[in-house]
Amino acid sequence: MRLLRRIGSRLATTALVLVGAVALVFALTLVIPGNPAQALLGPRATPEAVQAFSHAMGLDRPVAERFALFLWNVLRGDLGNDVVSGRPIVTMVAEVLPYTVSLTLSAIGLAILFGVPLGCYAATHPGSLIDRVAAAVSIGFIAIPNFVVAILLLMIFSVWLDWFPVLGVSRSGTLGDQLARLALPALSLALGWIGYIARLLRASLLDVLGEAHIRTLRAYGVAERVIVYKYALKPAAIPTVAVLGLGVGRLLGGAIFAEIVFARPGIGTLVYDAIASRNYPVVQACVLVVVGLFTLTNLLVDLSYAWLDPRIAKAEER
Amino acid sequence: MRAVFGRVWRQPVGRLGLLLVVAVLLLGVIGPPLAPYDPNKLNILARFGAPSTAHWLGTDHLGRDLFSRTADGGRVALLVALSTIAIALAVGTLLGIAAAYASPWGERAILVVFDIVSAFPTLVFALAVVALLGPGLDKVILIVAITLIPHFGRVARAQTLSLRNSPFLEAERVLGAQPWRITAHHLVPNILGPLVVLASMDIPVVITIEAGLSFLGVGVPPPRASWGTLLHDGYTTLSQSPWPVIVAAGMLTLATLGFTLFGEALRDAIDPKLRVEP
């Protein structure tokens, strides 16, 4: 019952946050210097054209009414039309979203693939050379901005060594070609997370490995490898899962840069081009989509805590 | 204060961080007056120069001296980072204390606002605002400060809640001290430690955001140098010369790494309990 109430209150907060985010994005359009219709149509638009455009966009109506309409449209999944091409923005976002999602997911995949074994090794060999090198390198990769990493990877592997195709995605190419073009952008996003996951996992594994049931397993003569991967890894993974979930926002932010640096289509390049062409409705829509994805992932992660670790659910029952 | 720096210095990681931080501060403060060239002076004949005695770090695609521009960019980065953190620290602390003392509804309202602001990934929020309002240093500072306020607000609230009913504040109240006096003279100094640690750990974050926005062309307006614009200029001319990218990426790496290591060492020195692995 407590759990249901918790889920309910968490859902209510999420709804409030989303409405607040929509309000904030809407409020930003109110403070654009000058008339937005004039800004969109450019300095050479006639007053009549500006007026007609304002009317068509509903800009001449009261603010409260405009906000209600805006909110209603967002709820219906209508993010307006692109002012340049006149296409629905939802379609434009839907076209590029798979590229951003696949980039983000591959980055998470890479981070897990390398971070988990590294963390396990570091936890079972604390103080070893690999442990210390991994700690130092991971702080470095966490600290360095990922667009710097992206550009350095581009410079080293594509320009100097010529190992990877430089830019873009291959829409019709073979799977191998597509993966080759995905490799560097995904790696540029994943590098920071490999170290982060390794450090997190090392810390929580060390805690778990010190617990009584692990000592019992050791006394029974169970192989260390089996203990780590079969018995200790699962409970130790919870903080890592939580942090990964919360990190989706940062990853999405990073994906924007990776897309621009490597000239990949995606939400990032869509926003970037929209900013360059002052295509405000597209900027607004992309911000809303990113905030929406971010909030929903946070909600899922938050709700999954109790499910992942029964002890958390029990604690909340009390 | 000296004891804290001593403890930072005794850790190898802290020592490296402190040295890098001092180097970046020196570059930003005395670099621009020392720089041999005007950071915005063009010299097309000397474009894409490698490091030499005339141009210590080489020149960019317009023949501008990269050392002078890097120093100028360092000044911008420090200016943005320090003023942003100062605003966020001040406003966040006040709101956090207010939330701790407010009625349940007031507290909940402040926390929901924090939640809404935190729901925006900082970079996306900054991108949206700057894209709509136009670029400018002041806007970058204000926006990033707003997104960091919840950070400081939540910590300040938690700290205040844990101290609110402690005997020394009780004693002040019994002695008849005014609430603002208790807050300013007794509460704030006691909750400041964790907030200062948080502030130092947010410096590299702000430097990254400023550089990122400038990289996207919506941060520091040209021709003013920023590490982000240097990196972007270098990126677009990467096939002609690697030096602008190497210099800008190197500076950003050293600065963010230095402040991160320093922040971690400072945290361990001030209050090891704050340590949340990693």
UniProtKB/TrEMBL annotation, chain A:
A GO BP entry: transmembrane transport
Keywords recorded for this protein, A-Z: Cell membrane, Membrane, Transmembrane, Transmembrane helix, Transport
Main localisation: membrane
Protein known as: ABC transporter permease
Domain spans labelled ABC transmembrane type-1: 97-301
GO cellular component: plasma membrane
Family: Belongs to the binding-protein-dependent transport system permease family.
InterPro entries, A to Z: BPD_transp_1_N, MetI-like, MetI-like_sf
Subcellular location(s) per record: Cell membrane
Organism in which the protein naturally occurs: Azospirillum cavernae
Membrane topology designation: Multi-pass membrane protein
The keyword Ubl conjugation appears for this protein: no
Ranges annotated as spanning the membrane: 96-121, 133-159, 179-198, 240-262, 282-308
One Pfam family linked to the record: BPD_transp_1
From TrEMBL, chain B:
BP terms from Gene Ontology: transmembrane transport
Primary location recorded for the protein, binned into one broad class: membrane
InterPro entries reported in the protein's UniProt record: BP-dependent_transpt_permease, MetI-like, MetI-like_sf
UniProt topology in membrane: Multi-pass membrane protein
Keywords attached to this entry: Cell membrane, Membrane, Transmembrane, Transmembrane helix, Transport
Localization annotation: Cell membrane
Residue stretches spanning the membrane: 12-35, 76-102, 109-134, 140-156, 195-221, 241-263
CDD domains: TM_PBP2 (cd06261)
Domain ABC transmembrane type-1: 74-263
Organism superkingdom: Bacteria
Cellular component annotations (GO), alphabetically ordered: plasma membrane
Keyword Translocase among record annotations: no
Protein family (similarity comment): Belongs to the binding-protein-dependent transport system permease family.
Protein name: ABC transporter permease
Native organism: Azospirillum cavernae
